[in-house]
Specification:
The complex is a heterotrimer of chains A (630), B (134) and C (194). Chain A is mainly alpha-helical. Chain A is 66% helix and 2% strand. Chain A has helices at 2-14, 19-24, 29-57, 68-104, 112-134, 159-187, 200-231, 245-279, 286-300, 315-345, 352-373, 377-383, 387-417, 423-449, 466-496, 538-550, 583-599, 603-620; strands at residues 560-564, 571-576. In chain A, a hairpin with a 6-residue loop joins strand 1 and strand 2. In chain A, helix 3 (29-57) runs antiparallel to helix 4 (68-104) and helix 8 packs across helix 13. Chain B is an all-alpha fold and 134 residues long. Chain B has three helices and no strands. Chain B has helices at 3-35, 47-77, 97-127. Chain C has seven helices and no strands. Chain C has helices at 3-8, 16-44, 60-71, 73-84, 88-117, 126-156, 162-190. In chain C, helix 2 packs parallel to helix 7 (162-190) and helix 4 packs antiparallel against helix 7. The chains are: A mainly alpha (630), B mainly alpha (134), C mainly alpha (194). Chains in contact: A-B, A-C, B-C. The interface between A and C is large, with 57 and 45 residues.
């Protein structure tokens, strides 16, 4: 059969190197996605262990499980790990990398080697930060690391330097990923996929990527200033010499608020693909959901000082941020309404992924309601630094980011592994996690309103907080059990699950048109796209089969990938993509050396290491693609 | 209206409001920061004048932008899309008409939101007493 | 490529390489934006700017030099145009012209930076901290641009390919961004004299 001939040619062309070398040198977005997935799970376990230690310390008043200094390290690392080393890399690095090219009908990202670099830099930054823990000098001033507590005067030693450098290092990984996603989404969509025919998942990742690109520089500037203040003697944050401690907070939250939208928007994207699959209905108000995803990140850049309502800024300044906070709620609400209407008017089958999405909507609405309350400045000033805030953001983060991640793991498990997961343990895992997280986070609202402060390693008896804290700690253990059930279910299913076939759910998007697991080249024939629900367009899929049999649009003359125009998806040219390469891991290694030398204050050595980076870059760009046809 | 012109009007409808609100938000915050800070107190900044002027300019530009979005929306409603029914909920239709319609629909809603936040920003800032700590 | 595919081509706007450089420029411009925002935030909070004891920046020479650097946008733009038409020698000449001016600019600026350090250091106060950091960051971006032009000239020794053509175009774009950035940064630093 002609189809098999072409598939064989493509398979040979796109085959990776065998063995470990094939993984170390990979530029395949699917392999990179898997590397991110496993690394992130390990770091998730670390962040979870930190959480359990915190909860165990707080189980009753005046506990002595850990001392105050260790407690500070625990909640700092917990926040840093969960945000920078779990959610961002899991959503963008794992889900985004694996699925984006598949959803747009592409064979890889726009910059495959840069993609690999993102992963190795991410790994390096994780090792860098966790080395601090093993050396007994973990960061300890909170994930937001306010000055003057984080200054050299009050936090001498290397702990905060690990934080500053580690954050910048990690930020490089995310910036590269964001740039790669944006260019991929704009230029590598299958010809015919104009913006209005792009899946909502892609809109979500486009929004998150723009957010990362524009937010991370603020954090980089902030941590550069702090590193200079601590190690070189500058005075950015030193009030006595004209600096400002609030400058740290402004720059941090100009990053920090968009960051929290970046955390949840990819998860919105996951939810917004699971819903059509399990309701067999197109999402209601498609253009509004698409623009809402972009708007929530965009307007989210203007709300940052609502994290600073208790710092004594003038009311005329504060009002700008209260106003923007009021309006930023609306795009999220539009999405929730659209999803609920899709549920109601569709044919909902509550398989495990959809259960997690239902849980997500419940918890996101709950967390969003408390979020709206914060825009009232007088109320905010009462609950700042209490557990009410902790309750809010955990409902949002766990509810709106982690639940869709879990749902997504189940949803795409058949595509990635070729096996079906076991449904009953899946449902059980959902209910345990759902009950556990509500038991864990709901009482925090109550103790918060009763005045229990954040970031305190213990609390006195006689205030009536003991019962709620006990319930929360039990909730944390229950949640852990649920997560273990989930992971064990996926592991066992990997070895024992029944074969899934290409399309177990009759999903809407292009990844369901190819085999499970996908071949190295993704698409044998570049797909024809007429809508955002390409897998439901039977005629187009028929035409693809005919084309493949005739060798049309197969693009098998090298590692070929079509490039199209950004807005309307007109065909532009055929690009030749790079394949396995040693340069990404080498560059990540050279960058790690730079950061280690900076930590050790070896400035001359740093200069040499930077020269080394230039040499690696020369080698990287020594490879040129085969000449494209005129 | 020609396709090319329709495209330009569509981009006006999409891009202007976000840019304008960004400018208002940054400049408005900056003017407040300057006026109520140690050094800026002596510069004679007419806070209310600035905020109301920015509000008026921003509001006008967003209204124009909304008009652009509505124009494209109406112009692409009636078009025969060719390879797919336009109002099927598919948003599939012939490109670029379906793309124009899609962006126009999105922009119509977004511009209203931007108008709302521009008014809240501008009116809110002049409502309170100047430089009182929150 | 088959006729079917060739018949579909409509033209695709800027290349993938261009978009990649646009992402870098966007990120770096935002970084400078936060530096500049910090500059004014600190300024608003400081009655005397620069604080007494710290010298005001010179106005005329830095402005002229920034203007001279900005003129290199012309040879860079012309080089990008000439490679599109296959004008290899013209491109090499234009790149060398740009490089000479850029290196001369950076050489003088580094000398001047070190000279200024004799009179005030970043460790004096917040003004000098942000001044030297902002200025230094701009010089670093100029230095990177010089490395890119040298690399281009080295690559072009081997002749012209589509890849190298795109390289010249995106490096030219980088330089336009750096030139605009330098003008803005110098303007910000000189605003201390107002």
């Amino acid at each position: 059969m002609a189809t098999a001939v072409y598939e064989e040619r493509l398979e040979r062309m796109w085959q990776p190197r065998p063995g470990v070398l094939g993984w170390v040198m990979t530029t395949d977005h699917k392999r990179i996605g898997l590397l991110y997935f496993w690394t992130t799970l390990v770091l998730f376990a670390a962040g979870g262990a930190e959480a359990l230690a915190i909860r165990t310390q707080l189980i009753q008043p005046n506990e002595h499980v850990v001392g105050p200094a260790t407690y500070d390290e625990l909640f700092t690392l917990h926040g840093v790990t969960m945000i920078f080393f779990f959610i961002i890399p899991m959503t963008t690095g794992a889900f985004g990398n694996y699925l984006l090219p598949l959803m747009i009908g592409a064979r890889d990202m726009a910059f495959p080697r840069l993609n690999a670099l993102s992963y190795w830099v991410f790994l390096g930054s994780g090792l860098f930060i966790y080395t601090s823990l093993f050396l007994g000098m973990a960061p300890n001033a909170g994930w937001f690391d306010y000055v003057p507590l984080a200054s050299a005067k009050f936090d001498p030693g290397h702990a905060i330097d690990f934080y500053c450098l580690g954050i910048i290092f990690n930020g490089i990984s995310s910036t590269l990923t964001a740039a790669n996603f944006i260019v991929t989404i704009l230029k590598l969509r299958a010809p015919g996929m104009s913006f209005n025919r792009m899946p909502l998942f892609c809109f979500a990742f486009l929004a998150a990527s723009w957010g990362l690109l524009f937010a991370l520089p603020s954090l980089s500037a902030d941590t550069v200033f702090l590193f200079l203040d601590r190690n070189v003697g500058t005075h950015f944050f030193d009030v006595a010499r004209g600096g400002s401690t609030l400058l740290w907070q402004h720059l941090f939250w100009i990053f920090g608020h968009p960051e929290v939208y970046i955390l949840i928007v990819p998860a919105f994207g996951i939810a917004t693909e699971i819903i059509p699959a399990f309701t067999q209905r197109r999402v209601v108000a498609f253009p509004l959901v698409a623009v809402a995803e972009l708007l929530v990140v965009f307007i989210g850049f203007g709300v940052w000082a609502h994290h600073m309502f208790a710092t004594g800024m003038p009311t005329v300044t504060v009002i700008f941020f209260a106003a923007a906070t009021a309006v930023v709620v609306i795009p999220s609400t539009i999405q929730v309404f659209a999803w609920c209407m899709t549920f109601i008017t569709g044919n909902a089958r509550f398989k495990t992924p959809l259960l997690f999405i239902a849980g997500f909507i419940f918890m996101f609405v709950a967390g969003g309601l408390t979020g709206i309350m914060f825009l009232a400045v007088p109320f905010d000033q009462q609950v700042t630094d209490t557990y009410f805030v902790v309750a809010h953001f955990h409902y949002i983060i766990f509810g709106a980011a982690v639940f869709p991640i879990f749902g997504g793991m189940y949803f795409w498990f058949p595509k990635v592994t070729g096996k079906l997961y076991f449904e009953l343990p899946g449902q059980i895992s959902f209910w345990i996690i759902f009950l556990g997280t509500n038991l864990l986070f709901f009482p925090m609202h109550i103790v918060g309103l009763e005045g229990m402060p954040r970031r305190n390693y213990t609390y006195p008896a006689g205030l009536g907080w003991g019962t709620d804290n006990l319930a929360e700690t039990i909730g944390s253990y229950i949640t852990t059990v649920g997560i273990v059930v989930l992971l064990v279910n996926l592991l066992v299913s990997y070895f024992r699950g029944p074969p899934a076939g290409p399309d177990p759910w009759h999903g809407a998007t292009l990844e369901w048109t190819i085999p499970s697991p996908p071949p190295d080249y993704n698409f044998a024939v570049i797909p024809k796209v007429s809508s955002a629900y390409a897998n439901w367009d039977e005629e187009d899929r028929e035409e693809d089969r005919r084309k493949l049999a005739g060798g049309i649009m197969v693009l098998d003359d090298g590692h070929e990938q079509p490039v199209s125009s950004p807005v309307d998806g007109w065909w532009a040219e055929v690009a030749k993509m790079p394949h396995d390469s040693p340069w990404p891991i080498l560059l990540a290694l050279a960058m790690s050396i730079v950061f280690i030398l900076l930590l050790l204050h070896l400035w001359m050595g740093t200069a040499f290491a930077l020269a080394g980076i230039v040499l690696v870059l020369l080698g990287w760009h020594g490879e040129e693609p085969e000449e494209a046809e005129a | 209206m020609s396709l090319r012109r329709l495209g330009i009007v569509q981009w006006i409808g999409v891009i202007v409001a976000p840019l304008v609100w960004t400018a208002q938000h940054v400049v408005g915050y900056g003017v407040g920061q300057a006026r109520c800070s140690v050094a800026g107190m002596r510069w004679g900044i007419g806070f209310d004048t600035w905020q109301l002027a920015i509000l008026a300019a921003a509001g006008l530009l967003v209204v124009i932008s909304e008009a652009a979005a509505v124009t494209v929306f109406l112009a692409t409603r009636e078009t025969n899309y060719g390879d797919g029914p336009p109002g099927d909920g598919r948003w599939g239709g012939a490109v670029p008409y379906s793309r124009l319609h899609f962006f126009a629909t999105a922009a119509m809603v977004a511009n209203v939101l931007f108008l709302a936040v521009i008014f809240l920003d501008g009116l809110g800032s002049v409502f309170d007493s100047l430089c009182v700590q929150s | 490529m088959s006729d079917y595919v060739a018949g579909l081509r409509r033209g695709g706007g800027p290349s993938v390489a261009f978009w990649g450089m646009a992402m870098l420029v966007a990120s770096e411009a935002t970084l400078f934006g936060t530096f500049i925002g910090s500059y004014y935030y600190l300024r608003f909070g400081t009655p005397h700017w620069p604080p007494s004891g710290t010298p005001e920046p010179r106005v005329v020479v830095p402005l002229i030099l920034a203007g001279v650097l900005a003129t290199t946008s012309l040879p860079m733009w012309l080089a990008a145009r000439s490679v599109r038409r296959g004008g290899l020698w013209a491109a090499r000449f234009l790149l060398v012209w740009a490089l000479v001016v850029q290196v001369g600019y950076l050489g003088y600026e580094v000398h001047d930076y070190l000279h200024q350090l004799h009179r005030s250091v970043p460790q004096d106060n917040a003004y000098s901290s942000i001044y030297y950091t902002l200025l230094g960051a701009d010089h670093v971006h100029v230095a990177v641009g010089i490395v890119l032009v040298v690399w281009l000239l080295w690559k072009l020794l081997g002749g012209l390919t589509t890849y190298r053509l795109r390289a010249v175009q995106v490096v030219a774009f980088y330089w336009h961004a750096v030139n605009v950035l330098t003008l803005i940064v110098i303007g910000v630093l000189l605003s201390a004299t107002l």
